[in-house]
Amino acid sequence: MPVGLTVETLLEENDVTTFVKRFLDQVALNSDACAVTFGGESLSYGELNTRSDALAVQIAAQGAKPETIVAVALPRSIDLIVALLAVLKTGAAYLPLDPDYPKDRLTYLIADAQPVSLVTDAGVEIPANTVPVVKASAMSRPHPPRAGETLERLRGGLTGESAAYVIYTSGSTGRPKGVVVSHDAFLSLLDATIPHFDLSDQDVWSVFHSYAFDFSVWEIWAPLLTGARAVIVPRDATWSASEFLTLLDREKVTVLNQTPTAFAALAQADKEHNCALSALRLVIFGGEALEPARLQNWFSRRPERPRMVNMYGITETTVHVTALDMHADMGALYTASPIGRPLAGFRDHVFDPQLRTVETTDLGELYLGGPQLARGYLRRPSLTATRFIADPKGGGGRLYRTGDLVKRTAGELEFAGRADLQLSLRGFRIEPGEIEAVLETFPGITASAVAIKPDPDGTAADECLVAYVTGSQASSDMRGLRAHLNQTLPAHLVPTHIVALKALPLTPNNKLDRAALPAPSSRQTPAATLDRSALLRRRVARGRTLTKETSS
User: What sign results for the dihedral spanned by CA atoms 37, 42, 44, 50?
Assistant: First the structure.
């Protein structure tokens, strides 16, 4: 680091409002520090900066600039991190296209987002389109900008309010919607959590989740904008808890982010293998409801360390909004999922349907406000207006209507379910209408419904996504129906079980009675039970989902 250069002086001298400026500050502070690791490959901050500069020039040549979108379709790799940073260096927002998504889904995302270019590479299968392609391998062939141009000039006009990324979430009309998030929104989250979690350049983070899932935004950029090291978890290790546990121990990971479902498998592997995990100091939960009782076995083995924190947030509110430290005695105190209080700078309101504040312990819908709110939905002003509303308390601010029901207990928020039809499973928010719309395009299906039910093939408290279909041919071609779903929907939206019914259950008002939908039957028999991690890996490899045995 140059003599006299510190984080404090950098913050004083620069208007630090974007991902790029924060990253370049870390390069200036210690360019030789390791930034990212994947398998046996690593890049220092200086090397990551150089490689992303080279690729950024190629991307900018295709028209990337502030308020444009650049799609990125790459597998888990260091090249992926280089590409995401390169897009941001042009001033554009990145659109993650997970290569594991079905072609129909990718085709829709490309058509809807209208990116000016697509960063990909050999071996990645992307549906045919007319978007100009930039090969990630171009980063190995540096091309300087045209005379008189620099990357700073190319991203001229970039501000904290500019779009940083666009992530698509499930849509109630059957089509996913793009959420546009600004630089300021994420940096507000980062600045609130640095002191809360003592984040520093001494940390090592695991990057576990798909980069098309907003949890990844936190996992990738929090370490890279604080000088820490990001360890990309290989795909196989995300499906094998024992492999992942070994990686955490070997890489001396200090900050781990997990959905409760994924952590349950990791905790079981920890019980069986008893790894040291000597460096692990912080575990952050997010993405789905956390039942404190499920942490009891972990606390019984590791009562002192690491710190365990439950966080709550939504893509539209930039990953995390609230935080609550978890302790061993909470299993007896809470029957619902405690989510704590908002981070510094954020505000919460619990309203009734008339937007009146509910009494302290009553159930109401959660509304959130503050600098972490997304800008809205990409080219969907009407939808944006219905979900991002003017603060009824006045002051000119906006609130996001979460659709989540909460109540306050001793000043802490408790999550109590959904106020609308949206579902939540393994960190993904799921609009049943999106899946039902696809189900009903299959020949012979006259009606459908989707629900989350206890998983008959899982362990205690495991849940699964179940589809219910009616029609004269509803049970005659389940193999074809499974293929139809896999070709159209990403894996997290494909039901694990499909149940054929004569008719969907109705309430006395002739509305769908989701609570009355039957539980699915187990596909497994004692003689044919498979190891669950192997089963999950098989599902990924084959691109298929599990269905009810009698429907096969």
Answer: negative
Which stretch of DSSP H or E encloses residue 205?
strand 204-207
Q: At what angle do helices 241-250 and 260-273 cross, to 10 degrees?
A: 80
Name the pairing type of β-strands 133-135 and 177-182.
unpaired
Long-range Cβ contacts of 355-362 (<8 Å, 24+ apart): 355/392, 360/408, 361/407, 361/408, 361/409, 362/407
Which sign, positive or negative, has the C-alpha torsion 382, 387, 392, 393?
Answer: negative
Greatest Cα pair distance in the chain: 77
- Count, residues in the chain: 552
Residues 547, 262: Cα–Cα separation, whole Å: 21
User: Given the structure tokens 């659709």, which residue do they identify?
Assistant: 403
Mean pLDDT by 10 residues, the chain (552 residues): 39 62 95 96 96 92 94 97 96 95 92 97 90 83 49 73 94 80 97 97 96 94 98 93 95 95 86 88 91 86 91 95 93 80 93 88 91 96 95 86 88 83 76 80 83 82 86 77 88 89 70 80 50 41 32 28
Our separate counts of H helices and E strands in the chain read 16, 26
| Angle at the Cα of 360 from the Cα atoms of 356 and 366, rounded to 5 degrees | 55
Locus of tokens 């719309």: 437
H-run or E-run covering 434: helix 432-439
Radius of gyration of the chain from Cα atoms? 23
CA–CA separation, 439 vs 450, rounded Å? 10
Query: What are the tokens at 393?
Result: 């308390």
The residue to which tokens 């990686």 are assigned? 247
Beta strands in 9-109 (DSSP E): 34-38, 41-44, 69-72, 93-96
d(CA 78, CA 232): 8
* Nearest one of 534, 545, 513, 548 to 236, comparing CA atoms: 534
